[in-house]
Design goal:
Layout (H helix, E strand, L loop, with lengths): L22 E10 L3 E3 L3 E10 L6 E8 L14 E9 L8 E14 L3 H8 L3 E2 L2 H10 L6 E4 L3 E9 L5 H11 L17 E8 L8 E4 L3 H9 L5 H15 L8 E6 L7 E7 L4
Parallel strand pairs: 4-6, 7-8
Antiparallel strand pairs: 1-3, 1-5, 2-3, 3-4, 5-6, 8-12, 9-10, 10-11, 12-13
Length: 277
């Protein structure tokens, strides 16, 4: 079930495993996307990273995960290496997608210094978002996860979040209205105040520019930590962090990008990799 070269991504992903047996996988977590409403789980988080198994290296996506329901020992961080049982996600056409058994999760290590992360992440960093998009348009389902190093980042756009749609709010209401097995009340998932988009160009000579939504968990978490700030002050802090700091001249920034299962040509920035140059 090889999903890519140990030394970097391949042009096309391989087929999913034929069987539905659970198997244990070791994963370097590089992405925790912002939570979204779910009727079954209240809220779900998409996690992505790199398989550390030598016989099956490459990008993997773990979904669904209700992060708030995890025990404290299982609340993993970005750049944790975890061991977990997974099986192919049959309701998702993207070949990197796996269904996790969260009761089996074990946190094995945390890669804190950038020098420990670089040797594992850098082989998967590429320079053309245009090529990733062309692959999806030409041969869907193609690779749905990538790390792209932009040639230049023009800026970040921020707009007020419109709030949950009627369907999303209905999912939240139904979940919150239930009482869990311990009789504990469930709290509703709140929409963030702002949505954001990166504007950047990749190294393809004909690149006309990319504008991709910021779907990073930390983008939403920062807004919640700064809840006491007014809207204008909050936008200043978001731009300072996600553009001024992460995309500074001294950072070797790359964007972790992932697409949507139902609209595979639509990619978002699900995380930012920003080691020093």
């Amino acid at each position: 079930m090889s999903q890519g070269s140990l030394f970097g991504p391949e042009a096309a992903p391989v087929m999913k495993a034929a069987d539905d047996a659970w198997r244990r996988m070791k994963v370097l977590v590089t992405v925790k996307a912002a939570p979204n409403p779910s009727a079954a789980y209240g809220e779900t988080v998409c996690v992505a990273g790199l398989s550390m198994d030598l016989d099956a290296p490459g990008w993997v996506r773990l979904y669904p995960i209700n992060f708030r329901d995890l025990e404290s020992a299982q609340r993993f961080r970005k750049y944790d290496i975890v061991s977990i049982k997974v099986k192919p996600a049959r309701n998702d056409p993207r070949v990197e997608s796996w269904k996790p058994d969260m009761t089996s999760l074990e946190v094995r290590d945390y890669l804190k210094p950038w020098k420990r992360r670089r040797p594992l992440v850098e082989p998967y960093v590429e320079e053309s978002m245009c090529e990733v998009l062309n692959g999806v348009r030409a041969h869907p389902p193609a690779r749905s996860l990538a790390a792209v190093r932009p040639a230049s980042v023009q800026g970040i756009d921020l707009e007020p979040h419109p709030g949950w749609t009627a369907d999303e709010q209905d999912k939240i209401n139904r979940y919150v209205g239930q009482i869990d097995m311990f009789g504990t009340d469930r709290t509703a998932l709140e929409a963030p105040r702002f949505r954001g988009w990166y504007r950047y160009k990749c190294t393809t000579t004909t690149c006309g520019g990319h504008r991709q939504g910021i779907l990073d968990w930390e983008f939403v978490a920062l807004q919640r930590r700064l809840v006491r700030l007014g809207d204008d002050a909050l936008k200043v802090e978001l731009r300072k962090r996600y553009f001024g700091e992460m995309c500074a001249a001294g950072k070797d920034v790359a964007f972790f990008v992932g697409n949507q299962a139902k609209r595979q040509h639509v990619f978002g920035v699900v995380g930012v990799y920003w080691p020093p140059r």
